[in-house]
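Field notebook, page 331. I keep forgetting to write these up properly, so this time I am using the form the group agreed on. The chain and the ligand, zinc ion, are recorded exactly as supplied. Prediction of the bound pose follows.
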Amino acid sequence: MTVISLQPLYPWQQVIYSSITQPFSQGRGHHALLFKTEAGLGSEVLIRHFAHWLLCQNKNGNEPCHQCKSCLLAQSGNHPDFHQLEPIENRDIGVDQVRDVLATLQRFAQQEGNVVVYIRQAERLTEASCNALLKTLEEPHEGVYFLLETDLQAPMMATIQSRCQTWVLHAPEMPIALQWLQMHCPQFSETDIETALRLCHGRPLICKTFLENDRLSARKTFLQTFWRFYKNRDPFLLLSQFEKEQVQMQLEWLQSFFSDALKAKMGMTTGWVNHDLDKGIWLFSDALSAQQLLKGYDILCETEKNINEINAVNIELMLANGLTRLVLEVF
Ligand SMILES: [Zn+2]
């Protein structure tokens, strides 16, 4: 059973949704669309909404009617012409999965309307899966639409990509995200939300979880400990504050502290991530040279990169190494 979400679009999706649907309304929609996106933007909601609209048999502008037989089937999570492909139990999307779906397409639409195949994490199609899919993408059946979703950074087989119309779904403009977060996290001040949003790279859904899990104050405590580590030159003070699942984010907090201090050093007072900690940043910036700040920033980036790439067996050791280097080479 494949459920097509009935969740409304997020405000930052309205404009791009109109652009995506427009050519279809004019009868010249592309049969294969590739959506490149990042986590935390709710792109799945947009794609499912679009799929629902494609299946609707009595479209109301660029919205589904919610009343026709197709819409009712979609709402019940039981639409026979909506197919979803994705990794199962974290295994790549195998060629058998692809062939199964393609075989059902041979029997044509069961509802006299369009057919939609939604492929999630399309970067995880194996080479054989891509090849199986390619033939269908090259000779499209009328009324059959492929919606592929992939991570913005992930490489995608060029032959597949060249047969798709690509849409890149970016993080929204700050004011739109801010307004939405203020509505959904009213207990936080505007300054806190702004800071959290910058720390979450402008991704509203990740930011919402971040705020709700009280990560903003966790970060404050963490950076206060960093300050003690800096003063005492004792790596173990900070080492004990790293949390297993949060290491990458915590390293990013430190990087942003260094880069803000560097900006302060250069007289730049805008574009800081940690505006709420400006007193500490000015102090830090006054105490260190630009060269030291840059060196510290590089060490932190290198540490993060090593942890990500070297399979993270010895995270503690790599962190200890990075922090010791800060003491010996920077402070
Ligand atoms: Zn409908």
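OBSERVATIONS:
- The two ends are 59 Å apart (CA to CA).
- Residues 85 and 119 are 5 Å apart (CA to CA).
FOLLOW-UP: compare against the apo run.
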